[in-house]
Amino acid sequence: MTDVRGRPRLGLWTLLLVSLMLAPALYGGNDVMGEIEFEGKSKVERTSGVWIDGGYVGYLKELKGSKKVLLLPGEHVIRVRQDGYQDFEQRVEVQPGKKYLVRVQMQKALTQPMPAVTATVKIEVNPNRAAVFVDGQFVGHVGEFEGAGRGMLVAPGAHKIRVALPGYQTFETEINALANQKVEVKTDLVKSNAGVEDPMLNPAGSDHAAPPPPPDRATPPPPPDRATPPPPQG
C-alpha cells in the first residue's frame, strides 16, 4: 500500500534522446550515445519513477533491454522519486560509447501521517508502466496499484487521478472516495504521435534550470566585425 504525499516540483525537459519505445536495432553499433544502467537493492528503489533532465522515462526496474536509456554526450540530471521518500538525484557527465552505473538509494522522508480512516484506490491501466499522479502529485506507476492485495490509500473525499506516459494520451478522472471504500480505475491508454505533452511528465516553469552545455560544446562567440579596407591610392 502506498499513501499520497506531496512531491517537489520537477525540472525542465532537456533529455536529448532516450531509447524508450524504440527498437534497439536503431542504435546498434552507435558509438555516439552513452548508456545509463540503474541498480536498486530493494523493492522501493526498483519501483521508483525515473526522470532525466526533468522528463519521466519510466520506473527503475524496467529501464534495461529494449527500454535502456541512451543519452547524447553532455551533462544530464537523473532524479528518482518514490512516494514517501526523499528524491534521489545524481548528475552524470556522459561520454560517447560509455556505460554508467547509477546506484539508487532512497531515504525515508518526513511526511504527515495518514488519517485514521482511509479509502483504497486500485488502478488497472494498460500499459502498467505509466506514471500515476493524485491531486497533481506523483505517487508511483500503475503496476504498484494493481492486482490482489495492492492499492493506494487516500483520505476520504474528492481526488483527481491522472495516468500519463510518453507516447500516449493522458487519462484523467475524478473520484469521490468514501471511508473504507474500494475504488477501481480501469482503462487502456491510447497511443499518440504528439510526443510528450503532459505537464506532469514534462513540466514547464520549474525553478530547476537546465544544465549548461559542456565547455567543448558551447556555442562560440561570433567573430568580430571586419571594417571595409580603404580603396587603394591612385
Architecture overview:
The chain is mainly β and 234 residues long. Helices cover 2% and strands 36% of the residues. It is built from one helix and 15 strands. The protein has one helix at 43-46; strands at residues 2-3, 34-40, 49-52, 55-59, 69-71, 74-81, 88-94, 99-104, 119-126, 131-134, 137-141, 152-154, 157-164, 171-177, 182-188. The strands form four sheets. It has a four-stranded mixed beta sheet, with no helix packed on it. Strands 4-3-6-7 form a four-stranded antiparallel beta sheet, with no helix packed on it. Strand 3 and strand 4 (55-59) form a beta hairpin. The termini are far apart. The model is unreliable at 1-29 and 204-229 (pLDDT under 50).
How much helix is in the residues? under 10%
Mean pLDDT: 79
Q: Could you describe the largest sheet, including whether it forms a barrel?
A: 4 strands, mixed
Please work out how many helical segments DSSP would assign.
1
Morphology = globular
H/E order of the elements?
A: EEHEEEEEEEEEEEEE
Oligomer: single chain
Strand order, main sheet: write it out.
Answer: 1-12-9-15
Rg for CA atoms: 22 Å
DSSP summary, beta strand count: 15
